[in-house]
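Dear colleague,

Thank you for sharing your sequence with our group. We've completed the structure prediction you requested, and as agreed, I am returning the results in plain text so they can be pasted directly into your records. Please verify that the sequence below matches your submission; if there's any discrepancy, let me know and we will rerun it promptly.
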Amino acid sequence: EDEFVAIGDQWNSGLYPSQQEGIERIAVSTASDPRIHLYVRVHPNLSGLDNAQTRGLRTLRGGNLTLIPAESKVSTYALLRSARVIVTFGSTVGIEAAYWGKPSILAGEAYYRFLGVTYNPRSHDELVGMLLSDLAPGDRTQALKYGYYWATLGEPFKYYKPTGIY
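Please find the predicted C-alpha coordinates below.
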Protein backbone atom coordinates (compact mmCIF):
# COMPACT_ATOMS: atom_id res chain seq x y z
CA GLU A 1 0.00 0.00 0.00
CA ASP A 2 2.83 2.41 0.80
CA GLU A 3 4.19 2.00 -2.73
CA PHE A 4 0.87 3.04 -4.27
CA VAL A 5 0.40 6.02 -1.93
CA ALA A 6 3.72 7.39 -3.14
CA ILE A 7 2.52 7.32 -6.77
CA GLY A 8 -0.57 9.43 -6.20
CA ASP A 9 -4.36 9.40 -6.03
CA GLN A 10 -4.76 7.73 -9.44
CA TRP A 11 -3.90 4.44 -7.70
CA ASN A 12 -6.78 4.76 -5.24
CA SER A 13 -9.55 2.49 -6.49
CA GLY A 14 -12.09 4.01 -4.13
CA LEU A 15 -13.30 0.54 -3.18
CA TYR A 16 -11.73 0.76 0.29
CA PRO A 17 -9.89 3.59 2.04
CA SER A 18 -7.08 1.15 2.89
CA GLN A 19 -6.14 -2.48 2.43
CA GLN A 20 -6.65 -3.10 6.13
CA GLU A 21 -10.20 -1.76 6.05
CA GLY A 22 -10.90 -3.82 2.93
CA ILE A 23 -9.66 -7.01 4.57
CA GLU A 24 -11.64 -6.28 7.74
CA ARG A 25 -14.87 -5.64 5.81
CA ILE A 26 -14.41 -8.74 3.66
CA ALA A 27 -13.76 -10.88 6.76
CA VAL A 28 -16.87 -9.55 8.53
CA SER A 29 -19.05 -9.97 5.44
CA THR A 30 -17.98 -13.58 4.89
CA ALA A 31 -17.72 -14.69 8.54
CA SER A 32 -21.01 -16.58 8.52
CA ASP A 33 -20.14 -18.66 5.45
CA PRO A 34 -18.25 -21.80 6.50
CA ARG A 35 -16.96 -22.28 2.94
CA ILE A 36 -14.83 -19.14 3.15
CA HIS A 37 -11.60 -18.77 5.07
CA LEU A 38 -9.32 -15.84 4.31
CA TYR A 39 -5.56 -16.31 4.37
CA VAL A 40 -3.94 -12.88 4.38
CA ARG A 41 -0.32 -13.07 3.25
CA VAL A 42 1.51 -9.92 4.28
CA HIS A 43 3.96 -9.03 1.53
CA PRO A 44 7.46 -10.34 2.36
CA ASN A 45 8.92 -6.91 1.50
CA LEU A 46 7.28 -5.62 4.68
CA SER A 47 9.41 -7.93 6.81
CA GLY A 48 11.05 -5.98 9.65
CA LEU A 49 9.15 -2.80 8.79
CA ASP A 50 7.37 -1.07 11.65
CA ASN A 51 4.90 1.58 10.54
CA ALA A 52 1.19 2.29 10.85
CA GLN A 53 0.35 -0.08 8.01
CA THR A 54 2.28 -3.07 9.37
CA ARG A 55 1.06 -2.46 12.93
CA GLY A 56 -2.51 -2.31 11.62
CA LEU A 57 -2.14 -5.52 9.66
CA ARG A 58 -0.89 -7.30 12.79
CA THR A 59 -4.17 -6.45 14.53
CA LEU A 60 -6.33 -8.29 11.97
CA ARG A 61 -8.42 -10.95 13.69
CA GLY A 62 -11.38 -13.12 12.84
CA GLY A 63 -12.60 -16.67 13.07
CA ASN A 64 -12.45 -16.94 9.29
CA LEU A 65 -9.12 -15.13 8.90
CA THR A 66 -5.55 -16.35 9.22
CA LEU A 67 -2.83 -13.72 9.09
CA ILE A 68 0.47 -14.89 7.63
CA PRO A 69 3.15 -12.38 8.65
CA ALA A 70 5.73 -10.96 6.26
CA GLU A 71 8.47 -12.92 8.05
CA SER A 72 6.70 -16.27 7.58
CA LYS A 73 8.33 -19.02 5.54
CA VAL A 74 4.90 -19.91 4.11
CA SER A 75 5.16 -19.81 0.33
CA THR A 76 2.88 -17.35 -1.43
CA TYR A 77 2.80 -19.77 -4.36
CA ALA A 78 1.78 -22.71 -2.15
CA LEU A 79 -1.10 -20.54 -0.94
CA LEU A 80 -1.96 -19.63 -4.51
CA ARG A 81 -2.05 -23.30 -5.57
CA SER A 82 -4.31 -24.20 -2.63
CA ALA A 83 -6.75 -21.29 -2.90
CA ARG A 84 -10.08 -21.36 -4.71
CA VAL A 85 -9.87 -17.64 -5.55
CA ILE A 86 -7.24 -14.92 -5.08
CA VAL A 87 -8.02 -11.39 -3.90
CA THR A 88 -5.34 -8.73 -4.19
CA PHE A 89 -5.14 -4.98 -3.83
CA GLY A 90 -2.71 -4.63 -6.74
CA SER A 91 -0.03 -7.23 -6.09
CA THR A 92 1.49 -9.07 -9.04
CA VAL A 93 0.11 -12.24 -7.45
CA GLY A 94 -3.21 -11.17 -8.98
CA ILE A 95 -1.91 -11.61 -12.52
CA GLU A 96 0.14 -14.64 -11.51
CA ALA A 97 -3.07 -16.24 -10.26
CA ALA A 98 -4.57 -15.83 -13.73
CA TYR A 99 -1.49 -17.46 -15.24
CA TRP A 100 -1.92 -20.43 -12.88
CA GLY A 101 -5.61 -20.75 -13.72
CA LYS A 102 -7.05 -19.24 -10.56
CA PRO A 103 -9.85 -16.68 -10.53
CA SER A 104 -8.40 -13.35 -9.43
CA ILE A 105 -10.33 -10.49 -7.85
CA LEU A 106 -8.64 -7.09 -7.93
CA ALA A 107 -9.75 -4.93 -4.99
CA GLY A 108 -7.33 -2.12 -5.83
CA GLU A 109 -5.47 -0.75 -8.82
CA ALA A 110 -2.90 -2.52 -11.01
CA TYR A 111 -1.40 -2.14 -14.47
CA TYR A 112 -3.17 -5.38 -15.46
CA ARG A 113 -6.64 -4.14 -14.43
CA PHE A 114 -8.08 -3.91 -17.96
CA LEU A 115 -6.54 -7.02 -19.52
CA GLY A 116 -9.54 -9.26 -18.87
CA VAL A 117 -7.64 -11.43 -16.41
CA THR A 118 -9.20 -10.17 -13.17
CA TYR A 119 -12.61 -9.52 -11.78
CA ASN A 120 -12.79 -5.82 -10.94
CA PRO A 121 -15.65 -5.20 -8.50
CA ARG A 122 -17.09 -1.70 -8.24
CA SER A 123 -18.37 -2.13 -4.68
CA HIS A 124 -17.78 -4.11 -1.53
CA ASP A 125 -21.05 -5.99 -2.02
CA GLU A 126 -20.06 -6.93 -5.56
CA LEU A 127 -16.71 -8.26 -4.29
CA VAL A 128 -18.42 -10.36 -1.60
CA GLY A 129 -20.85 -11.67 -4.23
CA MET A 130 -17.91 -12.72 -6.34
CA LEU A 131 -16.36 -14.57 -3.40
CA LEU A 132 -19.60 -16.46 -2.88
CA SER A 133 -19.95 -17.45 -6.53
CA ASP A 134 -18.14 -19.94 -8.71
CA LEU A 135 -15.80 -17.75 -10.79
CA ALA A 136 -13.97 -18.89 -13.90
CA PRO A 137 -10.25 -18.09 -14.25
CA GLY A 138 -9.21 -15.14 -16.43
CA ASP A 139 -7.55 -15.33 -19.84
CA ARG A 140 -4.13 -16.93 -19.34
CA THR A 141 -2.93 -15.59 -22.69
CA GLN A 142 -3.29 -12.03 -21.41
CA ALA A 143 -1.32 -12.97 -18.29
CA LEU A 144 1.46 -14.34 -20.50
CA LYS A 145 1.51 -11.14 -22.58
CA TYR A 146 1.73 -9.07 -19.41
CA GLY A 147 4.59 -11.16 -18.07
CA TYR A 148 6.42 -11.02 -21.38
CA TYR A 149 6.09 -7.25 -21.54
CA TRP A 150 7.56 -6.76 -18.05
CA ALA A 151 10.30 -9.30 -18.72
CA THR A 152 11.40 -7.55 -21.92
CA LEU A 153 9.92 -4.05 -21.48
CA GLY A 154 8.74 -4.17 -25.06
CA GLU A 155 10.60 -3.24 -28.20
CA PRO A 156 13.36 -0.62 -28.10
CA PHE A 157 12.59 2.64 -29.88
CA LYS A 158 14.15 3.00 -33.33
CA TYR A 159 13.39 6.61 -34.23
CA TYR A 160 12.60 8.23 -30.91
CA LYS A 161 14.57 8.97 -27.77
CA PRO A 162 12.42 9.78 -24.74
CA THR A 163 13.65 12.55 -22.45
CA GLY A 164 11.39 11.68 -19.53
CA ILE A 165 8.40 9.64 -18.48
CA TYR A 166 5.95 11.85 -20.39
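Summary note from our side: The chain has seven helices and four strands.

Kind regards,
the structure core
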